[in-house]
Write a structure and sequence with these properties.
The protein is mainly alpha-helical. It has two helices and no strands.
Length: 88
C-alpha cells in the first residue's frame, strides 16, 4: 500500500485545523448573538420592572418613616403638625 506523501499529510492536517477553527468560530458567533439577544431582553423588559420595584420600595420606606415620626410625637401641637403632613 502506498503511503501518502508528507505534503499531502500536512495539507490534510492543516485542512482539518482550518475546518475546526471555522466550526468553533461559527459556534462562538452564534453564542455571542444569543447572549446579545438575551441581554437586550433583560435591558428592555426586566430593568424597567426592577426600577419600578425600587421606586415602590422607596415609597414604602418613606411611609414607614412618616408613620414612625407620627407615633413618636409626644405633644398635641407636634401631633397636629404630623397629622397635617400625613394628609398632605
Amino acid at each position: 500500500m502506498k503511503r501518502p506523501s508528507l505534503r499531502n499529510a500536512l495539507i490534510g492536517m492543516l485542512s482539518s485545523i482550518v475546518i475546526s477553527v471555522g466550526a468553533l468560530s461559527y459556534t462562538s458567533v452564534s453564542s455571542i448573538s444569543t447572549m446579545r439577544a438575551e441581554t437586550a431582553e433583560v435591558g428592555e423588559y426586566w430593568m424597567e420592572r426592577l426600577l419600578t420595584a425600587r421606586d415602590i420600595k422607596g415609597e414604602f420606606a418613606n411611609v414607614r418613616l412618616a408613620l414612625a415620626r407620627h407615633v413618636m410625637v409626644s405633644d398635641k401641637a407636634g401631633f397636629d403638625a404630623e397629622q397635617q403632613t400625613l394628609k398632605g
